[in-house]
Amino acid sequence: MNRSEDATYFNVEEMEVIEGATVEAHTTLRADVRASTDEIVVWDEFRWVKDVDRDFGILSTTRHTAHDRVTGEAVDCCGSSVNEESTPQSGQAFKWPFLVEQRDYEFFDSTVREALPIAFEGVEEVDGHPGVEAYKFVQVVEPTVVETREIPRSLLGLDGEGDVTADIVYSNTRTYWIDPITGSPLDLSEEQRRVAVVDGEERLVMFEATMDFTDETVAERVESAVDSGEKIVLIRSTLPVVLLAVGGGVVLLGLLLYLARTRPPAHART
User: Fold this and answer.
1) pLDDT (tens digit, 9 = 90+) per residue, 213-251?
2) For the chain, what are the domain ranges?
3) How many CB atoms lie within 10 A of CB 249?
4) What pTM was estimated for this model as a whole?
């Protein structure tokens, strides 16, 4: 769950801008088992943002996405969509690959519906979890028109009566802290803005907030990643060494048995 204690948004029911609101973003993921295979997993995602105190829904998004089980990259198949509109998807979908590299990746933004660069910016300790290090990635989504909307001129400070068509412009600075072994996000911060623009001039803030993972969400993800990471390390390093040692012992035993069978009996030696 993501949360902001100081959000600004336009409340369409009250027809006014609300400032200093506490808002939460909840995300629900459900696997589409029938569509998934040994190579890909398919997810149905539902995300909604609400004003906690007013119990008012601000934004919502649905998404149908497939991604490679190993690399975490989106796979364009299985009816990929955003808000029930067919949408080809690419780049990292929900996670990074196992054994993350220290390099830039592409990450899919479901609002602009495009994969954009997300830059590797170093290794940092996860806030509140001493000793737990993560790879920091930052993606800057430049202001982009994502929809148009009819808005009363009076709300936009424009003269005259009636509505005017405004561009809704979205921007975001997204920072992920990724577990380097599992590729799972441990922490996330998004500086999100949506504003109404008329004739190139910003007229109304539709949504503005810095949304961060809650402490509880970070703690759950760190615990899960540590547990999964230990299993991956066991599979990739410890077990191969053990199996190699066991295999070497079997070969040696086989060689000794072979020599024992082929060695002539003592009474036949001269």
Assistant:
1) 999 999 999 999 988 755 555 445 543 444 444 444 444
2) 2-229, 230-263
3) 10
4) 0.85
